[in-house]
Specification:
The N and C termini lie far apart (86 Å). The protein is built from 16 helices and 17 strands. The chain is 31% helix and 19% strand. The chain folds into two domains: 168 residues, no CATH class; 236 residues, no CATH class.
């Protein structure tokens, strides 16, 4: 049975990923049950289950409200209709699934120096690591073992017959104090640039630095900035990867959760949007996922191949993060069933997330395109140079897309600066903003910045994410043969899972540019040459 295949060894008590004290963001983990994608009685659409057929997932218990979707409409229209007349205090809608990756969790554990055993409160387990995915270029090594053996660790894995296969290793000292030290942003530059400077204040974007947290703003400096029991809405940006020239822009995600007595943050829920139509070399799947697994899964964890930064809004009320999470849950349904298509230039992790925030009434500022003029005039040159209309279209889309939607670091800077502005907004002015922005302006108690280093492994260290298209290209080798790219296989979406109500995908702007230049080449240039010939004759 699917539910049984996702469970571990019941002889080690209190280790279930859905134990009473655990959480998935704002939701108690005990409101979920463990299973896998082969489940036949889950409140989850079959398209989503198909992606997780061999993965441990948690799904809401029967009777709980689960996010749905509307058929025959775009994702944007679905979200707008859902929001109409919605009371922010409405009971939250649960995510259709949470990707837990492993059924068992052990806190306060210590990995041996050889990574062969795991000591915990009730004894010692023989330990082995989940196998490295074949396409993954690096993995846990002696430097990783040394790093984790020096600290207590929260482990996600599968326990069978007194042994554990480790899937995730999360350092328990990666936690928030109740009063992180205050840090003043530079006042002589815009907040966007001040945040950029903060991300780059450490060498390599903090990849080799220590975990650190600081309070950037606080409504009442006399109180703790991170008291327990507060809801949080956070913005995550992951840095540039050191060994993949397609990954210099980093990655972006929205995070929801609640502060804990001990400062733990591993149970916060990260909303990770990632391409569905190719197999990730690290096994990454698009889904809501616990923060510790998002950063520290031995294959897919972002923390194994680049530094990360988190900007946290500590809130006096649950309503803002609950609304954001409920909206994202709904978007996931449209994403898994392919009504919403992931496109690296026009609908990526940053674009999807920023669209959701804007639709909810937080007008994250648009930075505008890199250059429409260069895109338009450069189209035929790129097509000739690369001998590919498709590559010219990609370049056009990158240059004409709003950079806040395109570049994860730009989205982080603009959303972060906007959050700081909302926090300082007078009450009278807050009424002029959208619904989500008003909630944030009224409820935010503190804004905290967190830096996560890269875990040591056989992988080279990464860096801060590129902020602009120009910076991205400046990091790519000029010689095509020197580029480091990991080819990945396609993952075709089964025709049987394609619902008949799906609307056709919106055409990228580049298709019109291609048509314009095509008409110009086929019609305009011959006409021009004919007229020149007539003038020559005359």
């Amino acid at each position: 049975m699917a539910a049984d295949s996702a469970t571990g060894d019941s002889t080690v008590r209190g280790t279930s990923a859905v134990a009473a004290r655990a959480a998935f963001g704002l939701c108690p983990a005990s409101d979920f049950r463990l299973t896998d994608g082969r489940c036949t009685d889950c409140p989850t659409i079959p398209q989503a289950l198909w992606y997780f057929r061999d993965e441990a997932i948690a799904v809401p218990m029967p009777g709980l409200p689960v996010a749905s979707f509307a058929k025959g409409v775009s994702t944007a229209d679905d979200l707008r209709a859902w929001l109409t007349g919605r009371d922010p205090a409405t009971a939250p809608e649960y995510p259709p699934l949470v990707w837990v990756a492993a059924p068992d969790v052990i806190a306060g554990a210590r990995l041996s120096a050889e990574a062969t055993s795991l000591e915990h409160a009730n004894g010692t387990l023989h330990a082995s690591l989940t196998p490295k995915i074949a396409l993954n270029r690096s993995y846990f090594d002696a430097s990783s073992a040394e790093f984790f053996s020096r600290r207590t660790t929260k482990v996600r894995g599968r326990i069978v017959d007194g042994a554990i296969v480790v899937r995730t290793l999360w350092p328990e000292d990666f936690r928030l104090d109740r009063a992180p030290a205050p840090q003043r942003l530079a006042a002589d530059v815009p907040s966007t640039l001040a945040l950029r400077a903060l991300m780059r204040s450490q060498p390599a974007g903090g990849a080799k630095s220590a975990f650190a947290a600081s309070t950037l703003w606080q409504r009442d400096p006399a109180r703790e900035s991170v008291p327990p029991g507060r809801a949080v809405l956070a913005i995550m940006v992951n840095g540039a990867q050191g060994d993949d020239d397609e990954a210099h822009a980093g990655h972006f995600a929205l995070v929801t959760g609640r502060t804990q007595e001990d400062g733990a943050i591993g149970d916060w829920l990260v909303n990770n949007f990632y391409t569905l139509d190719s197999e990730s070399e690290k096994g990454i799947l698009a889904a809501p996922v616990p923060l510790d697994n998002y950063l520290a899964d031995l294959n897919s964890g972002q923390g194994w191949y680049r530094p990360s930064h988190l900007l946290i809004a500590v809130l006096a009320d649950d309503r803002a993060p609950a609304l954001v999470q409920a909206a994202l849950n709904r978007v996931y349904n449209q994403f898994w069933r392919h009504q919403l298509i992931y496109r690296h230039a026009t609908m990526n992790c940053a674009g999807i997330s920023v669209d959701v925030l804007r639709s909810l009434g937080w007008e994250v500022p648009a930075r505008g395109p890199a250059s429409r003029v260069v895109a338009a005039l450069g189209f035929p040159l790129i097509a000739v140079k690369e001998r590919s209309i498709a590559k010219a279209c990609v370049a056009f889309d990158y240059l004409t897309e709003d950079q806040t939607r395109l570049m994860p670091a730009a989205a982080f800077e603009e959303a972060g600066a906007s959050l700081l502005s909302l926090a300082a907004l007078p009450s009278a002015k807050a009424t002029e903003t959208g619904a989500l922005a008003r909630m944030l302006a009224a409820d935010v108690e503190a804004i905290v910045f967190v830096r996560f280093p890269q875990f040591p492994s056989s992988r080279v260290f990464g860096d801060a994410p590129a902020v602009t298209v120009r910076e991205f290209h400046s990091r790519v080798p000029a010689e095509p043969g020197l580029m480091q790219i990991v080819p990945v296989p396609a993952r075709p979406f089964p025709a049987a899972l394609r619902d008949p109500d799906l609307l056709p995908a919106k055409r990228p702007t580049s298709t019109y540019a291609a048509a314009f230049w095509g008409i110009l080449l086929l019609v305009g240039i011959p006409i021009f040459l004919y007229r020149q010939w007539q003038r020559w004759r005359n």
